[in-house]
Amino acid sequence: MNDLLLILGDDIKINTPFLNYIFKSYILKFGELGDIKFIDKNDKNIIENIINLSKIYKYITIFSSDENYHLIAKILASLNDDLLEIKFEDTLTPSLAINSKKGSFLVSLNDCDINLVKANPLNKLPEFLIRKNNLDLKFYIYGFKFEDVEAVFKEFETKFNTEISITRYSNFIIFAKAISKKFSDLNGLRDELLNTFINRVIFEENLAMFIVNRLKNAKLKLSFAESCSCGLIASKIGEISGASQVFDGSLVTYSNEIKHLWLDVSNETLNEFGAVSKECVNEMLKGVLKTTGADFSMAISGIAGPSGGSEDKPVGTVIIGASSTEKQIVEKFFIKGDRNYIRNESVNIAFSLLLEVGSEIFLN
Question: Which residues form the CinA C-terminal domain (predicted)?
Fold first, then answer.
């Protein structure tokens, strides 16, 4: 990780709503959170810590309360053999700062860009001044037709001197990678993507990691009830470091008997509609939420093949759902491909439905 968010002052640390506002603002600007560290203003090693961190990270954003802002400004100026001057009426700023705005300035130390930001819970955060010179940008677009996105990207390639490759991640999600030509800066493209697709663009290479990080920030948990995917969702989430903070466990319920015993899917539902039905997956979602106490759940039941299909439910028929404690989506899909493709595509679609169910967490 090249980014560090350094939080200075207990008054910020203990103010959870304001801290979440800081994190959300940072994600909106840069697409993801970096590492997070808290530091005490009375730390005797504060100068040494800043020096050491500047040798580890490429970008550091320091969020300081009003009372500590001038202290850190003095430290950053002294480390660069610089002097402070008053700018923007009341803001002390190093005279050699790379950039400065009211309540925010940018300096460089050991080839690390450091942005000091005055963080006052009663005011809007000042402008972030770090500009990352990215040579490639990976992201997802959610909820748009492939053809429409492809047409927009052709215009962007010319406008921002980039090459953009796109692939279908699932029925609902497109994965894209932009590569700059002649070392052109991709920050302009990032801003244009945000303006065009608003909250339907996700700047992350790994969607499972994005989901885990958003749930961690919101202190929410996730669980799954899987049949034909046989634990594949749990495996993808379990690959992410820190998943234990959002994932306590899930249930693989392959047989009808286990669906009934573990998830309380009624025998009436199983007998009348079958395991591969919206009615069954609806009860699977409710059952896993009840069993695990999670905030979100996903469920999959289908026919991955190559055998087991019928005229009414051919191979590739998959029922996929996602649920929160307040909202639920269950849809029927027909997925063409071999067994592995059907199972993996089912998981990708499940992630897509989760984004929609939890849009206030994932898409804001």
Answer: 205-356
Strands 136-142 and 112-118 turn out to be: unpaired
- Please report where in the chains the tokens 């402070």 appear, as a residue: 84
Q: Is 14 helix (H, G, I), strand (E, B) or coil?
A: coil
Give Cα separations from 130 to 55, 98, 106, 187, 289 (angstroms).
17, 10, 7, 11, 42
The predicted-structure confidence for 12-65, as pLDDT tens digits, reads as follows: 989 999 999 999 899 888 877 889 999 887 888 999 999 999 998 989 999 998
Block mean pLDDT (10 aa), the chain, length 364: 85 91 87 85 88 91 91 93 83 86 91 92 90 76 92 93 88 87 74 90 88 92 96 93 92 96 97 97 97 96 92 94 95 92 92 92 84
**pLDDT tens digits for range 75-91:** 999 998 889 888 877 77
DSSP H or E segment with residue 343: helix 339-357
> Alpha carbon 309 to chain centroid distance?
37
Nearest CA among 44, 41, 23, 40 for reference residue 32: 23
Residue pair 37/1 in contact by the 8 Å Cβ criterion: no
HEC profile of 16-53 = HHHHHHHHHHHHHHHCCCCEEEEECCCCCCHHHHHHHH
Read off the pTM: 0.63
Q: Sketch out the chain's domains with CATH numbers.
A: 3-118 (3.40.980.10), 137-202 (3.30.70), 207-363 (3.90.950.20)
CA atoms within 13 A on the CB side of 149: 23
Choose among 2, 360, 334: nearest CA to 171. 334
